[in-house]
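Dock NAP; give full complex structure.
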Amino acid sequence: MSVSFSLASRRALVTGANTGIGQAIAVGLAEAGAEVICAGRRACDETVAAITASGGTARSVLVDFADPMAGRDLFDGQDIDILINNAGIIRRADAVDFTEADWDAVMDVNLKALFFTTQAFARALLARGAQGAVVNIASLLSFQGGIRVPSYTASKHGVAGLTRLLANEWAAKGINVNAVAPGYIETSNTEALRNDPERNRSILDRIPAGRWGEPSDIAGAAVYLCTPAARYVHGAILNVDGGWLAR
Ligand code: NAP
């Protein structure tokens, strides 16, 4: 059997595709041949424009995962084959000061919305007897504790666990569920760290590649996990971190 990295005639939905890692993944999926639906709480105009300018097909859909059940109808009648659960937020405060509001907001978007959106996706796939792929965006904090980000760390550990659970349940049903764990990537999510010279230096000192990652560094791994070439990959969490976890 030949190895294919093509996503021609596949339709993908990427959450949080207006910026950062989600935008890079959406562009990468389109380059591999997929039609891309860019889902966000704001229209993904820049991403759609970049994809169409390169000859690809993309459109925006508005969805706000502050309501964790907001994705329940996203897949009705859409024939979507690929789901990238990328939307995520982070709140920073010392653990002794951390508020219930900051706990709930992060867990709702990063974990509860991810689960119920994926459930809706799988129900739609199974109903039409189709095969599909899910890629969850995990984190180094799926494996490490981090500091001053308790709900983020809890949510990303949860993402790793759910990735494995869903892979166990759905591998035999033709749905590949995997995750990518980005290292330190230059996006708005990490701006506060890069603006703190001391944190920035200590982070850079530990990265074997010697630089922050770019959103496009994550796209290749996410796209690969959606292609036929990854058909026997289930429940994997692929670290894309410049070597951070190898250190
Ligand atoms: P980002 O630039 O802040 O992107 C986050 C995306 O999620 C944005 O599109 C954002 O939309 C969307 N989003 C947030 N809340 C949402 C909601 N309620 N409903 C719908 N969309 C929502 O940060 P990023 O770094 O690219 O983050 C993408 C993913 O990578 C996240 O899951 C993050 O945890 C993960 N990650 C990032 C790093 C890193 O170093 N940057 C490392 C590990 C993991 P708005 O633009 O409207 O806010």
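Observed: Residues 208 and 246 are 9 Å apart (CA to CA).
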